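Recap from last week: sequence in, structure out.
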Amino acid sequence: MFHILNLQIKLTPKIMASHILHLLLLLLSISLANCIQARTLVKHFAHCMSTKHINISKQIHTPNSPSYSTLLQSAQQNLRWINSSKTLKPILIVTPSIAYHVQAAIVCSKIHAVQIRVKSGGHDYEGLSYLCKTPFVIIDLVNLNSITIDLQQETAWVEAGATLGELYYSIAKKSPTLGFPGGLCPSVGVGGHFSGGGFGRGGHGSGRPGRPVPARLSGTGNFPSRLSIGTGPGQVCGFGTLLRKHGLAADNVVDAYFIDVNGNILNRESMGEDLFWAIRGGGGASFGIILAWKIKLVQVPPVVTVFTIHKNLDREGIKTVHKWQHVASKLPDDIFIRIIIQHYDERQTMVDAIFNSLFLGKTSDLLPVVSNYFPGLGLLEKDCTEMSWIESVLYFGGFKRDDAWEVLLARTVQYKSYFKGKSDFVENPMPESALEGIRDRLLEKTSVFLIMDPFGGAMDRVPEDDIPFPHRKGNLFSIQYLVQWRADGDEETRKHVEWIERVYEFMKPHVSRSPRRAYLNYRDLDLGVNVKDNTSYEEAMVWGRKYFKGNLERLAKVKKQVDPGNFFRNEQSIPLLS
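Predicted structure tokens:
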């Protein structure tokens, strides 16, 4: 029997509407249809979603709707999948504005035996938030994007359709000394970003890359025109700059509202600690649909310092990167220095190594620390720029210093590309010969990047089973590999994918092993996929232990408990285990 908990949800009017009676009428008025032909499925599903009590026609977008193509293209951040003949398009797209719309979509999907894909920001590397091999609907959470900040408690409720940019903007409008340790790309949705752990990108599963870092940046007080690479040719997003001080986004989630396979709206208390544990790093799309997160905000100083230093990856540059491996995870928690290694332009005869940093304090306090730990970097006062935390968000997002904060509210990516990504974790410093090998392989191709994000600090202090994200103490840094291209076609895709596979194979001796580990929000289907609907736990271990290590077993037991029919599934969803 379908039911919903009678919760008094005090987030926003959108999620307060539970509509129990209407859902009951919906189920009572529609008989199970086993054999609906494809041409009538859209009509039947749309009818199922609407009742005489509630007209939600504005929330339903069929292939004949003018809005359908726009919504579908906005969901697809990786151009590899936009024109693919190998994937189906959704039978319709639902854009809920209240919780009932999400509940109804789940009920109707079960009635008509179609799959669900949930889009928060659409940044899944492999497109799993908007692709499916069987008939499916997309639930696009774009309208569920309210943010409510409690300054007294230093917390915020954030609906799952909000973006990181909207969250950071909302925090900064309320306080200059509060922040949040999420990723660097403003257009990433919080639904998938937090549920995958909350570093890098995310969709209701993961992320995406972007535009190049120019060969030289001034670092003299004005923002460079383009700094990072991330969700549009431009930003290379990585783990957030507050990672070493405050951990992952998911480490700072304290409550959630969630709809399970039966349509129940649950919070932390009613879902129980096992499910609450699972959705903070295990990928929410395996268990249900997240409506909103309650997060703990963190203190940031009124003045922070940023710098960007470029070096060629020549003999001296390689020595500097090699030294970085030894010190980056041992620096004081207030200092975050990542490296972006890139070869973007075919006119470049050398590979760039870009040292990109945030310090939670003033330049005068930063310089002696870097001089002590990392003198070979050659950091000078003129390389540093002081600013507010929200200005640093703009800086790492690739915006100009005088840009209005409102640029963070843009949900669409101006430039999209075809891309493939992979990830690794490094436990011991790589030898200089490995860095030389990386350089030589990057020179073979353009629009290629390695992003190296340092760990240590707070990441060392959190046990690896505290949330499903297990990559904690013992990891010096993570690596994200990205290759981008502009032309469509199977041959073009093949040569770029083969290149990144060669680099990944070359790196095998220098990264984690038994198993070689990866990050869920840098999703990689090359690691393994589920065998349609019946993947066993043992089969899923091939890829699952790479993302979750020993936490996979607990995730699979939670999955069995909350979704025993495996309704919420995809190519890398959590398997069932009794």
